[in-house]
Design a protein that fits this description.
The complex is a heterodimer of chains A (153) and B (304).
Chain A (H helix, E strand, L loop, with lengths): L1 E7 L2 E7 L5 H8 L18 E4 L2 E4 L12 E3 L12 H9 L8 H14 L5 H7 L11 H12 L2
Parallel strand pairs in A: 1-5
Antiparallel strand pairs in A: 1-2, 3-4, 3-5
Helix pairs in contact in A: 2-5
Chain B lengths: L6 E3 L4 H11 L3 E4 L5 H6 L7 E4 L9 E4 L2 E5 L4 H6 L1 H6 L1 H7 L5 H4 L4 H7 L6 H7 L3 E5 L4 E5 H4 E3 L2 E2 L6 E7 L7 E7 L10 E9 L5 E9 L6 E2 L1 H7 L6 H14 L10 H20 L19
Parallel strand pairs in B: 1-3, 2-3
Antiparallel strand pairs in B: 4-5, 5-10, 6-7, 6-10, 8-9, 11-12, 12-13, 13-14
Helix pairs in contact in B: 5-8, 10-11, 11-12
The chains are: A alpha+beta (153), B alpha+beta (304).
């Protein structure tokens, strides 16, 4: 087992993990944070996306050992005192959620985009979400939601 | 599905890392970003008992310019390369190619050293580094050597890195004065895929608009990334007329030794090399820029 100290959704955390666990294993099986989904396991589908020091990463590819000293944000860390954050509210209003399986990854990729580019063009949004697959919505309402959330700022 | 259990070493210096590798005598695998290795392990294609991660070694993630030479630590992420000020001003070709790899959440994790060591023939950064005459720093327990990028890729997913050695960085000399350059990747399946073929080129036109210097790098065109020397020779010293460009494109298609796989046949790859070398050289001649640094797969210029 290896011991890691890191920030999880704004709170300092210390946990022991087996060295072969990925960040996704740690979140879902070690910490019961099941908002982050296991999709393809190969870094292709995007639903396991979390933010590591503000940058989107595939939690299925990043060994948990690499979290040491860094800050992780998952979908569970988005709400403000139980209220949906701006992006979550925009997704709900736009109908950008159907089955919901891709939504955690979409929200976090979109959050990283808006943090570095508060007024993105539609093209910027499409590029930022290029690695997040959705089989329900056809993407249109997701892109509308991200643009709406940015316009709110 | 979990990864098969392995022991993990996390050295905090290059000497410590090469000492561990020497002690394990070739039984350990090095992990950098893990974007290639972890999926390969999950599929059971490699089943290492021991991994040596380089992520705790300070200094391997730095980018600096030393006497006009860009020095990139092997653990530098492709995202960091794509957005770095020095690259965007003086090594734009590398910034463009790094910014074209896969998707944002892969580029944040994937490293330049890892990309080179994986030795994917259709690597995006490799053709750019071939055009920039980069050198790869390789360290072992004895010391460090520098391998020209043209000698780094030795075969299909094979490199000049020996067991016990670690790639620590990449040196990239400045491009020639007045150089124009670009990278185009052709992705017939999905835009975030590796390219069927990728083309990087750097050229300098003299006062008479003749080709003073030209370098062409190809991805997906052979078992390894390839410098298209015959294409370069075909137009060097000449005016870049449409016919001269067609000659270079034909030469590139001729010297390519592409493989057939599920993405496309060797013949198709060869024809696409002809098309995309022609398009890139024409765009560079005309001063058109199809791709921009960090630009994504939906760039209209990427459409065939």
């Amino acid at each position: 087992m290896i011991s890691i100290d890191f920030m999880l959704n704004g709170r300092p955390s210390r946990i022991e993990v087996p060295p072969h666990w990925t960040t996704l294993d740690l979140l879902r099986d070690g910490l019961a944070l099941n908002g982050t989904k296991y999709g393809c396991g190969e870094g292709v589908c995007g639903t396991c996306t979390v933010l590591l020091d503000g940058e989107p990463v595939r939690s299925c590819l990043v060994l948990a050992a690499r979290l040491r000293g860094r800050a992780v944000l998952t979908v569970e860390g988005l709400d403000r005192d139980g209220e949906p954050d701006r992006l979550q509210a925009a997704f709900a209003r736009a109908g950008a959620v159907q089955c919901g399986f891709c939504t955690p990854g979409m929200l976090l990729s979109a959050r990283a985009l808006l943090a570095s580019n508060p007024s993105p063009t539609e093209h910027d949004v499409r590029e930022a979400l290029a690695g997040n697959l959705c089989r329900c919505t056809g993407y249109t309402k997701i892109i509308e939601a991200v643009l709406a959330a940015s316009a709110d700022r | 599905m979990r990864l098969r259990p392995f022991a993990l070493a996390e050295p905090e210096s290059v000497p410590e890392a090469v000492e561990i590798l020497a002690r394990l005598d070739g039984e350990a695998r090095i992990i950098a970003g893990g974007t290639a290795l972890v999926p390969t392990m999950r599929l059971g294609l490699v089943t290492p008992d021991r991994l040596v991660s380089l992520h705790r070694i300070p200094g391997l993630s730095q980018i600096r310019v030393d006497k006009g030479v860009l020095e990139i630590g092997a653990m530098t992420s492709l995202a960091a390369l794509a957005r770095h000020e020095a690259l965007r001003s003086a090594w734009l070709l590398l910034a463009q190619a790094a910014g074209r790899v896969a998707t944002p959440a892969i580029r944040s994790t994937a490293t330049l050293g890892g990309n080179l060591c994986y030795a994917e023939a259709a690597s995006d950064p490799a053709p750019a580094l071939l055009c920039l005459d980069a050198q790869v720093r390789v360290a072992d327990s004895v010391g460090e050597r520098v391998v020209p990028i043209g000698e780094f890729f030795t075969g299909f997913y094979e490199t000049a890195v020996a067991p016990g050695e670690i790639v620590t960085g990449v040196r990239v000399p400045a491009a020639p004065a007045g150089a124009r350059s670009g990278y185009l990747k052709f992705c017939p399946r999905s835009a975030e895929d590796k390219p069927l073929i990728g083309v990087a080129a750097l050229l300098v036109l003299d006062a008479a608009r003749r080709v003073g210097e030209i370098r062409v790098g190809l991805g997906g065109a052979a078992p390894t990334p390839l410098r298209a020397r015959r294409a370069e020779t075909a137009v060097k010293g000449q005016e870049l007329t449409d016919s001269a460009i067609r000659g270079a494109a034909d030469a590139a298609a001729g010297e390519a030794e592409p493989l057939s796989d599920l993405m496309g046949s060797a013949d198709y790859r060869r024809e696409m090399i002809r098309v995309w070398v022609r398009r890139l050289l024409t765009a560079l001649r005309d001063g058109r820029s199809w791709s921009r640094p960090g630009g994504g797969p939906l760039d209209p210029g990427m459409r065939p």
